Records
---
Amino acid sequence: MTAAETVLPAASFARRRFWLRTLLAGPLAFAAAALLMLGGTAWLPAGRAQIDNLVLPVVLFPLIWTALFLYALLDARLLRAYGVIVALLALHGALIATRLWK
Amino acid sequence: MVKLPQSETKKLLAIHGWSGVLLGLLLYAVICTGVAAVFEDEIKDWSSALPTRAAAEFPAGLDAAMRRVAAETDPHFLHDLSIWPAGGGRLNLLFHTHETDAKGRPVERGVEYELDGNTMQTVARREGRLDDLGSARRSSALADFLVELHVRLHLPNPYGLFLTGVLGLVMMIAAVTGFLIHRHLIKELFTLRRRRDRLLTARDAHVVAGTWNLPFAFILAFTGSFFSFASAFALPAMAMVAFGGDRDRMFETLIGRTVAEDSRAAAPADLDAVLRDVRQRAGEEPTFISIEHYGRVDAAITLFMEPKRGELTPISYVYSGASGAFLQDKPLLGLQPSFGGQLYALIGPLHFGNFAGPLSKAVWFALGFAGAYVTLTGLLLWTQRRAGQPAWRRMGIVVHWVGYGLPLALLACPYGYFIAVASGADAITAQAIAFLGVAALTFAAVLLLRRHDAIQRAALLASGAAMLGMPLLRLVCGGLGWSSALRAGIVVVPAVDLALLSAALICLLLAARSIRSARALPVREVRAAGWAPGA
Amino acid sequence: MSGVTLLAIACSAAVLLLIGRRDPKRLRAAGRCDLAPYSAAQRRGLAAAALLPGLLLALAGQSAGVVIWLGASVALGWLLTQMLAAGVAGRGKVRR
């Protein structure tokens, strides 16, 4: 095996990880934050004025996205990070779907 | 302060740098315009002051004026009415109604009257879509140009709002990662090394400003991002998911309905009497009046008030629009206090810094200035560290151009505005020409001067000269003189002129100091300070 | 409200100036031997004193005052750091 053969797969592996990480921290983290915001209306308490479940997710959306973005980039185990974000997406996607097709 | 493994710190540093460098220049533009927009009301008052001024922003006689303009308005638009001080002593009365466009999308159209708040005479009348009415407001065009740049970078809805929302997130990410990567946050709070190692000096300048500004950088980014995303994306999506696409029902739920629906016609209540009553109840002045279902039995007048003395968040007072009876005081959202409503009410004051008059505005101006400084020094540091690579050297040119050219281009806008007002040209177009013209000139100047210190000096000199000439140009173009303004009790005109002259003086003094220290340095060292090849 | 808030800001700024003047790392970096740096305990005590006006405003229920005080304190802290560094440079104490 030549030096080039050992280096190239490692470089391509690193490149693939980079793009997978970018996909997770970019579009997927944004989609998860958006669905968490919209799905949150279903499980957050409405509070005294009956508006907390609507207001809190919208107000906290920038914080949710920042947290998910940083988590997606910083979790050393890429697969686990995908698991967490995809689980959030699936759970809140399902919650929203039940509200839309009610 | 926060001890992380070295690999994590490296990763965070990369996120901090790349997030900043990819969108930092746009973020810098948003922050710079935001700094100026803190004084939006004062800019409006200063740039287009009418010669006389009523004692209150919503003066007695408003009721009669409202009925007069309502009689002149197509009844189709007499659905809702918004009234607010438009700057320079003007009052805007906007009758508007909800419609759907050819594609079935909700749009608002209306008729807007601009009144002289002292004489109550109509100064201007505009009709059309609410989105288009804004760009037709000539008297407030100077402040509007700045605010548009700050809010949506002059891009169409919702793309501009979405972009500024993302910029807010970038700023939050930079603040959080900056906090995590800096191991000696407290220990180095006062450490600004002025060594000959320019990179170390630049690093200290960035870190010290960033550390002091950290809590407010986060707050301003978070609140700004909320404003952008809420209207561009979050609220429409919320209406779709939780209210089956019915936006009106969503807003009714969020704001709260105080009067039961009754579409029978009724004469509007006396607005002057309502204003007298609310001043007594609240002890503060209103900032905005909204009348829903104008001329109906279920009409409701909502008066949004200044926050009470010592408090951050405002509340609103609701009156019957038919009888004028007081109905209730309420938070901005919901009919009674709630955690979500309170959190929402905090966002505006924390972003605009307009909750305690000139004192809070001055502090917010300083915090915004610090934010702009942190962004620019960060970008300069990043590009200077990589100045050995041609691509980063080119990026360095762009950073210098935007960093020093943008404030100068913004200072050119009043020149465009005043000349347009005096000559009858379109104010927004004139400002855009002035802005882009100066931006092009500064690009040429950056390429010509090549050295960081020379560019900085030229920017200071040009900014000083621009601010020095601004009050003079205002006067030449028919603006209010100091003695007339003071006689009419319009303090803001000389105050802004004086602030500009003081800022000009500071810029010129700093430029003079920089020239003196450049002369003291040997030629070899001056050359070494450059970013450009061969400098 | 403004008067009390301004007083609180002035008190905190004065304490920040005291901390900054004798900040150990700053003095070390600037090569200043003429001033004795504060010990960690002294710095902690002064930091508490700098925070005290804000705490008093909060106890008095002046929410607007607290936010203005915090904003002004961090802005003035930055300004003081710049001034202290410029002062050091002005006296020719720059380390080469």
Note: Helices of chain A lie at 3-43, 52-74, 78-100.
---
Amino acid sequence: MSEQATPNDKPMPALTGLHGQFYAWCRDRELRFQRCTRCGRHRHVPREICAHCSSMEWEWSRSSGRGTVFTWTEVVRALHPAFGAATPYAPVVVEMEEGVRLLSRVVDCPPDALQIGMPVEVDFQQISDGLTLPVFRRAAVAP
Amino acid sequence: MFKDKACIVGVGETPFCRKPGSGLSEMGIQLKAAVAALEDAGLKAAQIDGILPFPNVGKAEAFAASLGCENLRFAATLHMGGAAPVGSLRMAAMAVTSGAADYVMVPGGWNGYSGARVRETAATDVNSIPGGEIARDFYMPFGLTAPPQWYALMARRHMHEYGTTAEQFGAVALAMRKHAQLNPAALMHGKPLTMDDYLASPMIASPYRLLDCCVETDGAAAFIVTTVERARDLRQKPVYIMGAAAGQPYPADEITNRADFHRTGLTNAAPEAFRIAGVTPADADFAQIYDCFTFEVIQQLEEAGFCKRGEGGAFVENGGIELGGRLPVNTHGGLLSQAHVLGIAHVVEAVRQLRGEAGARQVADAEIGVVTGWGDFGDGSIAVLRR
């Protein structure tokens, strides 16, 4: 289930270029990372070229959606006015099975219950008609 | 190479203040510091032919026009955030020893308290930092909006991997505050701090409490670099630049995808600087370490080679970085307890120590000192100086 949020004055990504393509997949409820079609490595954030093999050939490869909590911070005092009502909240770095990491939130876990290594899986949070953010939920420990 | 061929010949600072603010524009306060540095050196503004301003707070052309530098021929800004001043110190040494300029001014300052609050604006202007568009598109929508939050991600990971503790962060805050009691110019002079005070301070972005964060300040500072030959005619005893280097983490514009999460710009820059200088970290009599937040001191002590990675927490405990300890750090009180003027004051303090002008906080017989910078997601710079 996705959480419906109303549009607000929180900072929004620019939905253009490669960054916009990443979010376009999220709007379709798919988490995809660039994958180099020459050397096979995934990358995030989006870039024009593979930093390992210099290939400019790549595809949007669908992620398993599974990862673990790598690190986080609990924001108790908002340092941006748009997040004042949201505190406390925790930006979390998730390390994905594909090896890339991304900054997100674990929406069903209070900050004081977060643990490094905690398994999580992707979900999507629609912010507006044009923007859906990839977020995470706690997952069962992988078998 | 510039080893021992370039030196710092002038330093200047304004008073540091919070309420009610400096009463000057950001350019005005920096010009005040620049004039103080010229006076200290015994130089005329017209002799300055190189200016390396801090990013986003002033342009070389405006400094030159305001001060009367009619022969500006070397102007650049390093986009390394708080690593820029020491990176600019290195660039100034390269410039004067290559002949690109004769006298290079490095100014910096801001109305960091009464003007635009850095805590609220740091990532809102995508042009303010090299990773600005990435922060806008991949960090800010999730509420990661400001420097203490960026670096808290690193601090948390360090605590997890090495068992670094809140009390060890607190030891950094206490050491800086203790030094500030010996520095009448420090904002926190007359305001001593205990570990209980530290632990009771409100959480901002865990693991960072309020007292892990530096003090937003109105103020400015500046220093001037020239060759050893030119320094002979000037007012002050020169402080020699033995070695200096700068570096970037990888990737530098994005925090989360670093294969080695603790490798910062300093990791590579420090060995280069010490190699050029021909000394080791153990030879340093003091270090002025860029202390935007407490953990950054622990991390830089490790990455600069003062101790091994993971041992920084133990290094700062039990007075280890206080005056009289194994390595006095931030003898002026640092960004945490003196003032946050973008790291320039760390260079000024190193010069004062090496001139023997540090008064009650003087490191006895200080001969060699280290100064670092840190900024923009972990860029690093370092200089090894001697009297």
Note: Residues 14-138 of chain A form one domain.
